[in-house]
Structures are given as C-alpha cells and as structure tokens.
Amino acid sequence: MQSFESTTLSNGIELINKCNPNTPRTALSLYINGGNRTEKKSGVSDITTRLLLKGTKNRTAEEIALESDANAIDLDIDVKQDYSKARAHFLNDDIDIAVDLISDIIQNPTFSQFEKEIKQLSGELTLELDSPRAKATDKLIREMYPDHPYGIVSSKILETISDIYIDDVTKQFSDTFNAGNISIICVGPHKQKDLINKIEEKFSNIPSANIEERVLSSPVIQKNKVITTTKEDASQAQIIRGWYGPPVQSKDFISLLVLNNILGAAGLSSRLFIELRDKKGLAYSVRSSLEMLKYVSNFTVYIGTEPKNIETAINGFDEEIDKLIKEPVTDDELESAKKNILGKRAVYHETNAQQCFYLGIYHILGAGASYDELVPELIKKTTKDDIQHVAQKYLSQNHITSILAPSEFLTYLEREKA
Q: Mean of the pLDDT values across residues 71-88?
C-alpha cells in the first residue's frame, strides 16, 4: 500500500501528498517538467528560475524575502537538466502563507532585474569554473553530450549568456510553467482532503496545456577518448572518466547503484579507495558516482592525485573496472554494499523535506513517486550476477576521460586512448 495519495486537480496539476502525523514542519515542492533540456538557448532556464524570486505583481523581491524570514519559510528555486523546482519548507501552521507565497511567485513574476541577474549568473559560473575539479567535469559532460540538451554546462552557458534576452525568458516561462508540466509534492501532517482545497484555490488559474514530451536518446561514444585541460599552477591532477548508464526506471539502475557503492561510493570500504589510495598511495580523493537523469544516467570515476601519477591512476581505473567485468563481486562486498546503501537511505529519509525530495525526483524522472518505496526491496534482491551484468553491459562500453593538469604531464596524453 502506498504511503501517499495522488490527485489530479481541475487544470491537470498532479498533487501528491504524504501525511506524516506529529511532524512539526511541512515540505512543499513544485516540480516543473523540462529544465535545461527544453531550452532554445543555453542558460535561459537558469535565468528564468532566478528571476522568479525577484518580484511579482503583488510582492517586491524585498517583500518576498521579508515575508519568508518573518514566517521562517525556507524558500528556494533551482533548475536541473530535466526539471525546475520551487521548494518551501515551513511550520505546519503557516501552510496558508507558504502556499500563497509560492503560488504568487510562479504565477505572477515580473522578471525585473533581468540585466543584473545575467551579470550575476555569469560571475557565479566563472567563479565555479575556477575549481579544477569543476572545470574537468564540465569538459567531460560537454564531450559526452555534444549538441545534446544534457550537455548544457557552465562553460556552454557562459558562451551564450550574452545572447539571452528578456523575451527568451518570458517565452521559456510560458512554455514550461503551465499545469500540464507541474506536479506538486507535499509531505507533512496535512490530510489530502484539506490540502486539495488549499492547492486548488491557489493554483487552479494556471493554464493547462498539452505538453508533447521530447524523448531524448543517449549519444554514442564512438571510441575511448582522452581530453585534456592545461592548468599550469595545478598541484593536483583531476581525472574523471565517464560512461552512459541506464535511466532510473530501468531494471539495471539499482544494480548499477549497488555496483557504484562497491566500486567507489562507500568511502573507506570501496575498491577504489582501498586499491588506489590505501595500497598505492595515489589519491588525495577518489570515488565513483551515479547521476540519474530522465533518459540516461552518468556513471563516473574520479581521482585527484599528483600529476606524476596520472598514468598509474588511469591504469588503476582500468584494472578495477576490468575486475568488475570479469569477476563476480564477493558475498561480503555485496552484503556490505546493500547495508551501506540502506543505512544511508534511512538517514536521507528522516525529515519531511528529504522524503518530499525523493517522492518528487522519482516522479518527475519517470519512475513514479511509488518507486521510492520499492527501492529497498530492489536493493535487497540484487545479486552478484546482476552486478556483473551491468558492469559488462555499461562499463565495457567506450568511455571518455577528462584530465586537468600542468602541460608537462599532459604531452603524452594528447591522443586518443584505445
């Protein structure tokens, strides 16, 4: 039995509510399907969402901030590749204030301070790319997704941000912030019948539209490739390798999630940490990651190491991936990974805000809000054969490796690596 209730409002907005009695704060999130992958110009979604907090027809930016502070409402809006999200976290008794505030923000924006936000975003992205790791990751994702919506990263936005105009923002808003694209997730002590009336009153005026979902295919990496970034003052080399993985709704996703824990996401007990940091002394930091998107996932391995160790570290990646492909993991590794993931999951679901996030993210990425409740059992059922299957299926495919280091350590890498 699902722990939440789902209702479709009169204009097509889907309301998902999980009633958690005896909890002091409520989490309310609006997920707007689309995000960066719907953009005509890179970065227009980022500017659009930032401007929503800069004033409405009823409230100035200062009034929004003061009202949020006065009522202890934690409010923010952001955008990802597949969605935009407006989130509010507040005391239960303030639900009417919070609903009114967030509904005003997403229905009545004035898009004032446009030029200021363009400059501010440009500065923030430039500062972000001062981080060597961020720069190497940015270059990897651009290379993995050339001419693809999932390749909209900081450097690409910086290249096109001067070509974004206020008309682009208003069109992006009208195209995406409509009832056909919106799902509202609420987790708190509120009963569904009471919540429906509040939400219907404030959000029923949002126009409905038939949204044609643009299904994205995964690009293909034709051959293994090494791309380099020169940073002469870098004391540490940044090495990141990426593969395409399955979307979250795929039966392979959970198996790859468990593999990720075994390989590099479990910290001190993971293979990469033990083999590359403990035994070989290569790493300042080392890990693997699995990022879920709607139509694909990104599986990456990362190490920060002395530049002289680049080739040794890359060989270490090759060895550990090759083991996963050719040899089953041990029973102890598998059980330890399951316990680690389930333990972290319990911690990550303690608050209403955390539960709201997971209900919303699985819903908006196409697996459905109920998927969050299926995850523990799917993890428990994962076998050694499942782990080896996804290693062979995804990690034996071609990959791209992004390396940032001083030029003297990159000369031999200026070639495609077979």
A: 96
